[in-house]
Amino acid sequence: MTSHVSRPASRALGTALILTVQLMLILDMTVVNVALPDIRTGLGFTPSALSWVLNAYTLAFGGLLLLGGRLGDVFGRRRTFMVGLAVFTLGSLAGGLAPTAGMLVGSRALQGVGAAIAAPSVLALLSTSAPDARARTKVLALFSAVSSAGGSIGLILGGVLTGYASWRWSLFINVPLGLLVLALVPRHVAETDRQRGHFDVLGAVTATLGSAALVYGFIHAPDNGWTAPGTLLAFAVAVVLLTILVVHERRTSAPLLPAEVLRSRTRLGAIAVMALFIGAQFSLFFFLVQFMQAVLGYGALESGFAFLPLTALIFATSRVTPRLVQRFGTRPLLLTGTVLVGAANLWLVGIGQDSTYLGRLIVPLMLVGIGAGLTFMPVTVTVLDGVEPVHAGSASGMLQMSQQVGGSLGLAVLVTVYASHNSPGDVVAGMPQTFAVGAGLLAVAFAVALFVLRPLRQPRPDREVAAELEEDVELAA
């Protein structure tokens, strides 16, 4: 096995297999977006419950991500990667076959569990598959390209599959790919060394279930009332579980989030900015897809391509962001990014039945593309700045968790706003208020960036940032 895996051709194939899985995991955050109207009609979702098709995946993914990383440490990265992929593939098959709304939501949660187990091992396996530093740099560039392009590919692929076949194929597509990777990985990807230690199951379970209960409370309230027993019970369960999480994390000898990582005010501020930013952005995608299909009459394929200006500008802006960080530091870019995306939400407050794509949507999409491109890399640099090497993996995991859980909670809040102002048969009613609240989330993110974040001691050159991220990958492996 070792000699076979060490061959250049075999290593290249192993890298391609791992990147394929990374693409699958990113795709599934957006691939069902353009299919949501079809899913709602086919399985009878209510407008507020429809968001669970997205939230079930991201909540399970984000809540269990840190535990998944620890499982890879203890049991071996390749083994954990394959188990996670198998669970993800099974969830995809179950989702494609789901006969009811509840079955689909459960299948999406199962996908999220598999993604949380597999994703932390991706970077570690890519690092160990590279024979030297130069090869590692190339692999990291490929990883970044796949990750940044995955969202737009998901929108387009979801549109193609839904438009020409069925929304179910946006889930079925993972099954043959998953089986192929599972068959080939043992021959072309080497196992990593195991580490002795424990993993914090209670912390992961309380984090996941507590977040899910909080999201459920927000989604349950519009249809059943804020004082309904189910709503109050959900919020009570969330408070209890999240309190247990905080107390437990302070006392356990192997916490998911080491205290050293949580002591930095700037790091926690950057995490908050990311959660608020993703919550607003995730929700914007969700509602614009509904508008494009219900009001503009776009099909799933047209809806996917309608987001291309946003994606192209994210990619283009991301190419120059490292040089901007070097010159101006991270905080000015974060402030600019939140202002641009906040302005996009304010622009969309004027949305109405007579709005057109060119007249109302394309400018906000461009603003979000530029704003997101200016935000993601500076947030990552800020979170990792000053982290001890032994805790770099925990800091990175906390950032990823904030993206997943922040997206779910933001969407839950804004779906609640939408449902409370919506009128039967009028898709647009409630959207202006929703985008106004989204702008409010970005205003809070701006305030956090302005008053909580401290500027980095010195803006670091691109090469230093790249070297540091490469070092983090090696340590994670």
Brief write-up:
The protein is an all-alpha fold and 477 residues long. Helices cover 79% and strands 0% of the residues.
Q: Could you explain the architecture of this structure?
A:
- The chain is an all-alpha fold and 477 residues long.
- It folds into three domains: 1-196, Growth Hormone, Chain: A (Up-down Bundle), CATH 1.20.1250; 200-253; 258-477, Growth Hormone, Chain: A (Up-down Bundle).
- Helix content is 79%, strand content 0%.
- It contains 20 helices and no strands.
- The chain has helices at residues 2-5, 8-27, 36-43, 52-75, 77-97, 101-129, 133-164, 169-172, 174-188, 201-224, 229-251, 259-262, 265-294, 300-306, 308-328, 330-348, 357-384, 392-421, 431-451, 462-476.
- Helix 15 (308-328) packs parallel to helix 17 and helix 18 runs antiparallel to helix 19.
- The protein starts with a helix and ends with a helix.
State the main characteristics:
disordered C terminus; Growth Hormone, Chain: A; globular; 3 domains; 0% strand; 20 helices; mainly alpha; 477 residues
Helix content: over 70%
Instruction: Please trace the helix and strand order, writing H or E for each element.
Output: HHHHHHHHHHHHHHHHHHHH
Average pLDDT works out at: 81
Q: What is the terminal-to-terminal distance? A: 19 Å
Task: Please specify the SSE layout and strand pairing.
Layout: H1 2-5, H2 8-27, H3 36-43, H4 52-75, H5 77-97, H6 101-129, H7 133-164, H8 169-172, H9 174-188, H10 201-224, H11 229-251, H12 259-262, H13 265-294, H14 300-306, H15 308-328, H16 330-348, H17 357-384, H18 392-421, H19 431-451, H20 462-476
Helix pairs in contact: 2-6, 2-7, 2-9, 4-5, 4-6, 4-10, 4-18, 5-6, 5-9, 6-7, 6-20, 7-14, 7-15, 10-11, 10-18, 13-16, 13-17, 13-18, 13-19, 15-16, 15-17, 16-17, 16-19, 18-19
